[in-house]
From TrEMBL:
Superkingdom of origin: Bacteria
Region named Disordered: 173-208
Keywords for this protein: Sigma factor, Transcription, Transcription regulation
Molecular function via GO: DNA binding; sigma factor activity
Compositional bias per record (Basic and acidic residues), positions renumbered to this chain: 194-208
Domain RNA polymerase sigma-70 region residues, every copy: 16-76
The organism of origin for this protein: Lysobacter enzymogenes
Family: Belongs to the sigma-70 factor family. ECF subfamily.
Residue ranges annotated for the RNA polymerase sigma factor 70 region 4 type domain, each copy included: 110-162
This protein's name: Sigma-70 family RNA polymerase sigma factor
Length: 208
């Protein structure tokens, strides 16, 4: 597991989910496909960032979304997509990943989303307003009725808890898997046990 990549993804990509979904809903003609499109965008960004981190995460995220929809347009010949800013000029080249790596990326993304949902209400609101809606810190403080210093603390706390929830959940899964392997090993007869089968209490083979 690449902990640096996961932390980067949570801090610089996942926080833009609301804006990404809004863009997809405006640009794509099939509302029932928005969820799958979003997940596919995340997988592509995650895989690409594993090779080289983009210098501008948010533009890279939206360029990846447009690149994906363009691919589907060419295959399905659906209606055209409205351009967004100068994202069209960005060169987004993302290699196709194996099914195993794609599955792993999807699982990581699901854990990140679950971790975000588990944040305390105030932390989640501060992170959302500052990182997703990109409001100035002063405006976030006014909206929440707290000081700017408290906003900073809530955002720092939220990002720390996000990492703890995410990595803690993975650690628990790893521990459960290890315990399962240990139980299977314990239930498996050892070579010594197998060697004693068919012997009497003095080590002689039965029938001697």
């Amino acid at each position: 597991m690449d902990t640096d990549l996961d932390a980067w993804f949570a801090a610089d990509i996942l926080v833009h989910e609301a804006a990404l979904v809004q863009y997809l809903r405006r640009a794509w003609p099939h509302p029932d496909e928005i969820h799958d499109l979003r997940q596919e965008v995340y997988v592509r960004v995650y895989e690409a960032a594993g090779k080289a981190r983009p210098l501008q995460p948010k533009p890279f995220l939206f360029a990846t979304a447009r690149h994906l929809m363009t691919d589907r347009l060419r295959r399905g010949r659906v209606v055209s997509i409205e351009p967004v800013g100068d994202f069209e000029s960005l060169n987004v080249l993302i290699d196709e990943c194996s099914p195993e790596r794609r599955l792993g990326a999807r699982q990581n993304l699901r854990r990140l989303a679950e971790a975000f949902d588990r944040l305390p209400q105030r932390c989640r609101e501060a992170v959302w307003l500052r990182r997703v809606e990109e409001l100035p810190q002063k405006q976030v403080a006014q909206r929440m009725g707290i000081t700017e210093k408290t906003v900073e603390k809530q955002i720092a706390k939220g990002m720390r808890l996000l990492a703890e929830h995410y990595f803690g959940g993975e650690a628990q899964a790893d521990e459960a898997a290890a315990q399962g392997r240990a139980r299977r090993e314990a239930a498996r007869p050892s070579a010594a046990d197998e060697g004693t089968h068919g012997q009497d209490g003095h080590g002689r083979k039965q029938g001697d």
